[in-house]
Amino acid sequence: MSGFKIATWNVNSLRVRLPQVLEWLNKEQPDALALQETKLQDIDFPESVFTDIGYRVVYSGQRTYNGVAIITRDSINEKITDLPGIEDIQRRVLAVTVNGVRIINLYIPNGESVTSDKFQYKLQWLRSLEIFLKQELGAHQKIIVLGDFNIAPQPIDVHNPTEWEGKVLFSDQERKAFANMLELGFADCFRALNPVLQAYSWWDYRVNAFKRNLGMRIDHILASQSLIAQCELCHIDKTPRSHERPSDHAPVTAAFI
DNA sequence: ATGGTTGCAACGCAA
Fold first, then answer.
1. Residues whose CB is below 7 A of strand B
2. Which residue, A62, A113, A190, A193, has most beta carbons within 10 Å?
3. At residue A1, does pLDDT exceed 90?
4. Which positions ≥6 away from A9 have C-beta within 8 Å?
5. Chain center to CA of A133
6. How far apart are the first and last CA of chain A?
7. Residue A58 CA to B1 C1' — how many Å?
8. pTM above the 0.90 mark?
9. Residues A45-93: pLDDT tens digits?
10. Cβ contact A138:A223 at 8 Å
């Protein structure tokens, strides 16, 4: 596939955000869009809404929590919905191949707080993810890993890094796990294309965080080494976050030559 | 200020 545009968006309920997703698709015309937190069982996924406008869809959902989906222009192959080595009812992984590009959509656990059991689950999940990514790198050349990572990689990705030091989303353990991922052979598209730009992809619903720009960059698009040289643009679209009834996340887009 | 908001679903849980 040459000349393609791919995006990720944690929509925090596809049922609520469906009109915004359709509007955004129509305006941006990506070749692929990875969604997280669809919060829909597969039986409830609004498949025809997307096929009617010329997209194909694949999804791995559950009710109330989690749920991932990928919307693409071209045909979808080699679907995987689980990490190796862990039993997990939570639907957080969706890997597919489209036009020779491996697309791995992730909704990495939030972790709640570093003292929580959910934080240990997050770290274990990240260890399994690393094993999975190694496998994928052995099987595919062109890989894009994207989604809600729930990790801010560097101080520049946090509105107040001093305050967030050691806290969930920005702890040393999580940042190390992110760095390990890059060391496997991936680049962070946004940071590769915008080395010193401070921009966020998520703002808490509370405390007027969006208006005050108290955000974090936790939604990412990683590209394998054979793809990163072809990445010509990566940006975060804050527009939908300013809409009525927004998701707390903004979509992130990368374009490849 | 240990608060605040949102979504789901029906009470508190997760984010």
1. A 12-13, 15-16, 39, 63-66, 109-112, 118, 205-207, 245
2. A190
3. no
4. A21, A24, A33, A34, A35, A36, A219, A240, A247, A249, A250, A251, A252
5. 15
6. 9
7. 45
8. yes
9. 999 999 999 999 999 999 999 999 999 999 999 999 999 999 999 999 9
10. no
